[in-house]
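Q: What would this chain look like folded?
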Amino acid sequence: MSKKLGFTLVELMVVLAVIALLLSVVVPDYMGRMKRAEEAVLQENLAVMRDALDKHYADAGRYPTNLEELVTKRYLRAIPKDPFTQATTWVAIPPADPKKGGVFDIHSSAKGYERW
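A: My prediction, written as structure tokens:
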């Protein structure tokens, strides 16, 4: 009597069903955590750049004309990337008085996060 070694199709299907069930529970939680982490990075990047804008205004009496001026004057080492667009695509908000410079505030250019 010869015995065949291996798994039956039913056993393999049960294992795949269990794996699919576990993934259906874990993946949505993982995606939610990733979004919250990106939002935390966005908030930190905005806070750092807004602080640099305020320091520039306190030192120079005007806001910088662009964000690169913060890097050249060493208020920032580099302009951080927007975690949602993965680029330095910030939206610059000018001050009410154009004589005070060019960048009063910044926002994300990512859809849904324009007012952060």
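The chain has a mean pLDDT of 93.
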